[in-house]
Specification:
The protein is α/β, with parallel strands linked by helices and 228 residues long. It has one domain: TIM Barrel, CATH 3.20.20.10. It contains 9 helices and 8 strands. An 8-stranded parallel beta sheet has the order 7-6-5-4-3-2-1-8. α5 links the parallel β4 and β5. α4 crosses α5. The protein is globular, with a radius of gyration of 17 Å. The structure holds pyridoxal-5'-phosphate (PLP). Pyridoxal-5'-phosphate binds next to β8 and α9. The site of pyridoxal-5'-phosphate has 13 residues, from β8 and α9.
Length: 228
């Protein structure tokens, strides 16, 4: 068995165990393989293991990869900070943009999504834990952006994404994810048809699943450490 298949199996085991511990159906939880800084060969190996969704953080790195792997049936998620001069590339080449944190980006993506493609799947990135350095909209702004997205063509708002401050403490991790889940539930009760709560990475996927994640974004645990 290849090393990437073994890593894949162990991530699937972790997801299943976390779902069981939270009394959730593991089928509700999607795996996004975060392939930033990893080579095409590693993506092909994970594809062979059964992974279909991949996440990238930098447009300049992602576009050639998407092109080079166009023989595979992959779903690409953009999860990095969005610069406004890159929105056209994202709108043209990705299936999802998970890291929308301001109105200008939302409007540009809606205007630039090509007519011949299905609507662009979107998540609003929310700042959780109040760390000034991390990107993401405040919960108040995220609520406004979510309402706004419904009125824009060519976009399909799917949910919320967050990267909370790192912590080794399971209860602290859970506390952050619970905040995002509360906001998600509020937006759904207000009538928005959301189905995606994107939270949890290699070091905190258990806490995220415990609090209701429907999509976990996993890099290191699937690919090994990123090259410097
Ligand atoms: C890099 C990255 C990940 C994956 O992180 P790992 O700790 O390697 O699993 C997930 N989400 C985002 C937004 C990232 O930038």
């Amino acid at each position: 068995m290849s090393q990437s298949y073994q890593r894949f199996e162990s991530v699937i085991d972790r997801i299943r165990a976390a779902a069981a511990a939270a009394d959730r159906d593991p089928e509700e939880i999607r795996l996004l393989a975060v392939s930033k800084k990893h080579p095409l060969s590693a993506i092909r190996e994970l594809h062979a293991a059964g992974v279909r969704s991949f996440g990238e953080n930098y447009a300049a790195e992602a576009l050639p990869k998407i092109e080079a792997l166009s023989d595979l049936d992959l779903e690409w998620h953009y999860i990095g900070p969005v610069q406004s001069n890159k929105t056209r590339q994202l709108a043209e080449h990705f299936h999802w943009v998970e890291s929308i944190d301001r109105e200008k980006i939302l409007r540009r993506l809606a205007n630039q999504r090509p007519e011949h493609l299905p609507p662009l799947n979107c998540c609003i990135q929310v700042r959780i834990g109040d760390e000034a350095t991390k990107s993401g909209a405040s919960p108040e702004l995220a609520t406004e952006l979510a309402a706004m997205a419904g009125g824009l063509p060519r976009l399909r708002l799917r949910g919320l994404m967050a990267i909370p401050p790192p912590s080794d403490d399971f209860d602290v991790q859970r506390g952050y994810f619970a905040q995002l889940k509360r906001l998600y539930d509020q937006l759904r009760s207000a009538g928005l048809a959301l189905d995606t709560l994107s939270m949890g990475m290699s070091s905190d996927l258990e806490a995220a699943i415990h609090e209701g994640a429907t999509l976990v974004r996993i890099g290191t645990a699937l690919f090994g450490p990123r090259p410097a």
